[in-house]
Each structure stands twice: as structure tokens, then as C-alpha cells.
Amino acid sequence: MMPGVWGSDVDVKETPLFYKKLVDHRENYRKLRTEELAKLRPEGYTLKDVWDGTGSESERHSDRASP
User: Fold this and answer.
1) pTM assigned to the model
2) Which burial class, exposed, middle or buried, applies to 10 when counting CB atoms under 10 A from its CB (0-12, 13-18, 19+)?
């Protein structure tokens, strides 16, 4: 059980049900992510998507959160 999931009053009897829900949500997310990736990139990612071949970091590796 992860600390903070239900606060400090964790009912041990509910833990298996929580984990089942957690696993179900995770698997649903993975399925949806895979389906969307197939729409976006039917052939999958290529090396060019993650590396520009120069031996240095490209713009693609910049911090997306910065303006």
C-alpha cells in the first residue's frame, strides 16, 4: 500500500479491491496509449524522432515546460 493513498486510516480489507482498480486503470491507460500511438505514428517511432545524428542534444531534447 502506498502511503497517502487513503490517508492514515487505511482499511486493510479494502486493499485488494484498490489494487484491482489500480491495475485495471493502468491496463486501460496502456491500451488507450497504444491505440493513439498507432493513429499518430502507424509505423512507430524512428531513430530520427529522438536523435538528430549530430552527437549533441537537439531541440527535441529541450525542456518542454520552459517558455
Assistant:
1) 0.53
2) middle
